[in-house]
Amino acid sequence: MPVNARSLTLTNLRHRFGVQLNSSDRFFTDWLVQSPVLSDSDLQALDRIQRNYDYLSQEEPPLEEVVKLVVVSPLLDLAGFYQPPFLVKIEVGTTIEVADDPDLSIQGKIDILVIQDALWVLAIESKPARLDVTVGIPQALTYLLSAPTPQSILYGMVTNGREVLFLSLDRTTTQYTRSPTYRLLENAQERKQILQGLKVISSLIQPN
To answer: Which 3 state secondary structure label does DSSP give 57?
Structure first.
């Protein structure tokens, strides 16, 4: 019996797969210490993302597809994910078989997946602007659990256009860490940290 990944909660993931938050992990406390300095063109592009989003949200909160186009796509471009050695795929189907219930499988589609050779670099879950960004955490973690690649540490990103948060999952221990929630629109410093974080993730994944 297939279950849609969208319907899962953190409680479901804890009971089925033992996934738990590791609050002692300092990765997201320290990860931007050595982050690259952004260029003037990077800063101008970030400001343009904010202006574009503000303009398109005047009538109503943008839908998920608009969030992908206006926020996620330009961020990926600025982080270098549209250049070698990376590839970007969309709507990537995933399935997880549940070991203690052979009749149950969890299925879903990753909104955006960045890969390098056979390695997953970043799985991105996008939500409509009307939703809190944290509602995408269980879905993103489910996709990281489903990765067919050999890495033990995998990274995810969740955004609703207004906010962004990052995830790290250790598949060996099934523990995850989450970053602070960065405000893309209201805070220029946090807007820079989002792009710096993407650039850090791109530097962490090395080919075999």
So the answer is: coil
Residues of the chain with pLDDT under 70: 1-2, 98-103, 205-208
> What are the domain boundaries of the chain?
2-204
CA–centroid distance for 89 within its chain: 14
- The answer as to CATH 3.90.1570.30 being correct for domain 2-204 is yes
Between CA 134 and CA 10 the distance in angstroms is: 11
Angle, alpha carbons 40-111-56 (nearest 5°): 55
Q: Give the pair of three-digit tokens for residue 59.
A: 């009538």
pTM, entire model: 0.91
Alpha helices per DSSP H over 31-127: 40-56, 64-67, 73-78
- How far apart are alpha carbons 58 and 171 in whole angstroms? 41
Which among 175, 152, 177 is positioned nearest to 166, based on CA atoms? 177
- pLDDT value of position 81: 95
